[in-house]
Amino acid sequence: MPRIALYTLVVCVLAVAAAVVSFVQGSWLGIVWVLLAGLTSNMTFYYVKRGRTGGGPGKSVTG
Asked: Which stretches are transmembrane (predicted)?
C-alpha cells in the first residue's frame, strides 16, 4: 500500500470520528466532516488501486 494511501486513510478515520463527535454535541458542522471523509475515502481507493496496477508517476496507462 502506498504511503499516501495510508495518510488518506488516517485522515478519513479522523474525519469520521470528528463527524461523530460533532453530531453527538448537536453541531451541524459534522456535515463538513462527513464530506471530507467521503473525499478522503475516494482518494484512498484511488491510490490503492493505482499502487496495485503500477501506474506510478511517468508511466502511461494506455501505452
From this structure: 28-48
Domain of residue 25: give its range. 3-52
Q: Is residue 63 included in any domain, yes or no?
A: no
Report yes or no on 58 lying in a domain.
no
pTM: 0.79
**Which has the closest alpha carbon to 9: 54, 52, 39?**
39
The 10s digit of each residue's pLDDT in 1-38 is 789 999 999 999 999 999 999 999 999 999 999 999 99
Contact, 2 vs 48, CB < 8 A? yes
